[in-house]
Write a structure and sequence with these properties.
single chain; mainly beta; Metal Binding Protein, Guanine Nucleotide Exchange Factor, Chain A; three-stranded antiparallel sheet; 2 helices; about 10% helix; globular
Length: about 140
């Protein structure tokens, strides 16, 4: 797939920290309960750490107690790309930034959380950057 933001691998490596690169470009997962935004209650917009695209808002963030930031809906339906992931002997749905193709996490459905969509976008903190609401 062609993305609006495409860069050679060497450029991604130069622009991202090793941890950011591992998650965003190699689909690694940060350890549970270690991410900067796991328990954040700050109001604002979460954007892709690789390209800056707006992905999620604090209004859709909820406490899932899973160890990663959880959202019940992306900011816009076309902000993220969903891809079937059959790695690690499981069938999951990978969530990628629709603008640059960076790995963000996975989305799960039907877990019974009291949210409007019954979906949990389980997103790595290191893949996001929070712009706090001004006010």
């Amino acid at each position: 797939m062609a993305y609006d933001v495409e860069k050679p691998d060497e450029q991604w490596r130069a622009e991202l920290t090793p941890g950011e690169y591992a998650v965003l470009r190699q689909a690694a997962t940060e350890p549970a309960f270690t991410g900067e935004y796991t328990d954040t209650k700050t109001r604002g917009v979460y954007s892709c750490r690789a390209c800056g695209a707006d992905l999620f808002t604090s209004e859709t963030k909820f406490e899932s107690h899973c160890g990663w930031p959880s959202f019940f809906d992306p900011k816009d339906t076309d902000a993220v790309e969903l891809i079937e992931d059959r790695s690690h002997g499981m069938v999951r749905t990978e969530v990628r930034c629709a603008r640059c193709g960076s790995h963000l996490g996975h989305v799960f459905a039907g877990e019974g959380y009291p949210t409007p969509t019954d979906q949990r976008y389980c997103i790595n903190s290191i893949a996001l950057r929070l712009a706090p609401e001004q006010g």
